[in-house]
Amino acid sequence: MQYDLEQIVREYGDLVLRLAVSNTLNRADAEDVFQEVFIRLVRSLAKIENEEHLRHWLIRTTINRCKSLFSSAPRRRELPVDELPETVEASPDNQEATPAIDALQRLPEKYRAPLHLFYCEDLPISAIAGILDSSEGTVKSLLSRGRALLRESLKEVSYA
Fold first, then answer.
1. pLDDT per residue over 89-114, tens digit each?
2. Contact call for residues 131 and 59 (beta carbons, < 8 A)
3. From CA 65, how far away is CA 72, in angstroms rounded?
4. Do 148 and 59 touch, CB atoms closer than 8 A?
5. pLDDT tens-digit readout, 17-58
6. CA distance 111 to 13
7. What does the alpha-carbon distance between residue 54 and residue 18 come to, in Å, rounded to a whole number?
8. Rounded to two decimals, what is the model's pTM?
């Protein structure tokens, strides 16, 4: 199958950048991940079978690149929540974060990715399970626990 890289970037660039911002909590790191994902795509384009495979490949590769970014030596320590920036960028076009998006971005990574894919990218649980290389039951548990953490976080915001 023949693909036009510029068309792919136009069609999926926002998805990759949103997901990267959501996982890295930092615009500069997200842009680095964005570039790495599309560089890897150039090398792997011949292996892409169809549009659905392409979308899942981009999402999986973005999540993997974000994880590897945080496993690098200078980034191994996680910042406590109180050291995170007050307002995290909500979207690639630099809009201010809403309380819900801010709360989502403050969740541990294992909950952020499934919640982002489910609510922001409208992916079904079966697709998320495939992308995260997990069972559907695991994804459902992560979504349930993530929602509970979000509820608690948003209750704290409303009382503050």
1. 444 444 455 777 778 878 888 898 89
2. yes
3. 11
4. no
5. 999 998 888 899 999 999 999 999 999 998 999 999 999 999
6. 23
7. 17
8. 0.71
